[in-house]
Amino acid sequence: QVQLVESGGGLVQPGGSLRLSCTVSGSISSIFVMGWYRQAPGKQRELVATITSGGDTDYLDSVKGRFTISRYNAKNILYLQMGSLKPEDTAVYYCMYRYTYWGQGTQVTVSS
């Protein structure tokens, strides 16, 4: 059983920053990919960023240069540092492990 718990969401003004965290527990291994998805109202879930155990990263084009994904393997924590936030970044953000396990999500709202 694997559990993922996200935190760090909230309301932020355009241009602001937030850092999301995801704590992973259970039968896990640091060798697997982790990442963040998001889903905005009325839209399909989309992959925002991924990171391998070796630190290789990949990003959705619209967040490149603004978001940074990182992981702290020793404590099974995943982060997403988000900067220069835009209203279109508003969504529920989900942490992912192995493309198989998901958290419950944390709401990010970018609005003035």
The averaged pLDDT comes out at 94
Largest sheet: 7 strands, mixed
Overall spatial form: globular
Question: How would you classify the helix and strand content by structural class?
Answer: mainly beta
Which secondary structure elements does this structure contain, and how are they paired or packed?
Blueprint: E1 2-7, E2 10-12, E3 18-26, E4 34-39, E5 46-51, E6 57-59, E7 67-72, E8 77-82, E9 91-97, E10 101-102, E11 106-110
Parallel strand pairs: 2-11
Antiparallel strand pairs: 1-3, 3-8, 4-5, 4-9, 5-6, 7-8, 9-10, 9-11
Overview in brief:
Helices cover 0% and strands 53% of the residues.
Question: How would you describe this protein?
Answer:
With 112 residues, the protein is an all-beta fold. It is built from no helices and eleven strands. The strands form two sheets. Strands 2, 4, 5, 6, 9, 10 and 11 form a seven-stranded mixed sheet that branches. It has a four-stranded antiparallel sheet with strand order 1-3-8-7, with no helix packed on it. Strand 9 and strand 10 form a beta hairpin. The model has no long low-confidence stretch (mean pLDDT 94).
Index terms:
single chain, 112 residues, mainly beta, seven-stranded mixed sheet, four-stranded antiparallel sheet, 11 strands, 53% strand
